Amino acid sequence: MTLKLGAVFENSNCLLSRRTRYQFLATFLVNISTFAHGIGVGWMSPVMRDLQTTQSPLSFSVYVEEVSWIGSSLGIGSIIGNLLAGLLQDRIGRKPIMYALTVPYVCFWLLSYFAETVEYLYLARLLAGITGGGGYIVLPIFISEISDDKVRGRLASMVMLSVNIGILVGYVLSTSVTYYTAPLFIIPLPICYFISNLFLPETPFYLINNGKFGAAEKSFRYYKNIKDDDKSSILEFEDIKHKLTKENGLKVNALNYKDFLTRPALRAYGTAMVLVVANQFTGTFCFTTYLSDTFALSHTTLDVSMCTIVIGVVQIVGAYTTTLICDKFGRKILLLISTLGASICLAAFGCFIYFAEIYDLSAVDWLPLVILSLDIFMCQLGLIGVFFVVLVEVMPAKIRSAAVSTFVVILSCTVFVALKIFPLCMQYWGISITIWSMSLFAIASFVYFLIFLEETNSKSMLDS
What we know:
Residues 26-457 form the Major facilitator superfamily (MFS) profile domain. It is found in: Cell membrane. Pfam families: Sugar_tr. The chain is built from 22 helices and no strands. The protein is mainly alpha-helical and 464 residues long. It has one domain: MFS general substrate transporter like domains (Growth Hormone, Chain: A), CATH 1.20.1250.20. The longest helix has 29 residues, at 64-92.
């Protein structure tokens, strides 16, 4: 039994193999931040519905227009976080940005706890968005730069897995403890995250690009778990150093506008833009944020809190499935299954709600939960689960940091737009037309990925 277990750990594809175990440990530690962020997002969804009632846990109630601003403030904050992280990560490093994520997140919970007017909640969600926006820039790049090619997809996809686990915990917290008790459970998390990350070195890529070759070699040895007396493996480091210094010219051949206009770059922009649009306008994050409202309008008699928790579990199952299979089957097939499946589920969900307004469908009032669960699973399988993996991998190495940062800013802009208009669309258009519109975005994305997307599985981080 011991020999069999040892053989598993020695398999190069195992995340706990000797070569990759520190990469897995580092990924786990940095994702404490995304887990905590997910808790804040999940907790706020049921709370926003409570705030619209006379039983509001705060001293005031809010209206639909104010709810749309509370929801969309996250997107504004994400844009700020994206810009700050994108501008600073190549100047001061990945680690300082990762440390800084704790500050706005703690402020989010403090403002939520001491809220006296709706403006407190606007600012709280803005700060939560800064944490999420900064994290979505720096964490996928950090994880990709410390990971082996064979496990990079699984490790990078853990960003969304940890967010989804956090969202489920947030759902449970909102229904299990009082409004003023939840912050007391969560504030210790960012503190633990800050302390645990003190022991992780900066990425070898960043250190090489800044001419710190000694520190880069130590970082490389740490993340690859290579002993100091292992001379053969260090040839791999020398090869990476040679390619990076040749590609970037080590500050001699700086970036210029022509680097952003090459054929591979332009092709990557098209893929990235479709990824962004499909990620947001298929409605998955809107459902996560306004889940209680969506179920309340879907003509189901099931308990809304129970439905919310079921969806949270489905998100985790979908994200975890992605971490298991994305390196085995590739990114393209997951995106194709995801977009086609989401389109079908959204069309079916819209049809159910449309006919439920005309006929008595109480005998199958469980159907909205089943259909929406399938939709969430399909989106998590590809559009959400491998979003950051593909976004990082499609970009040419020389412009990767700047290009990824730019498209995550664009993503945050679409987050703001989607969260702002979703409750308003449901109110003025009706939920059926809103859902059918999302289905059209999904099928259009499927067609694009089928024709134009190139597989990036096992692509070297040094390739263009």
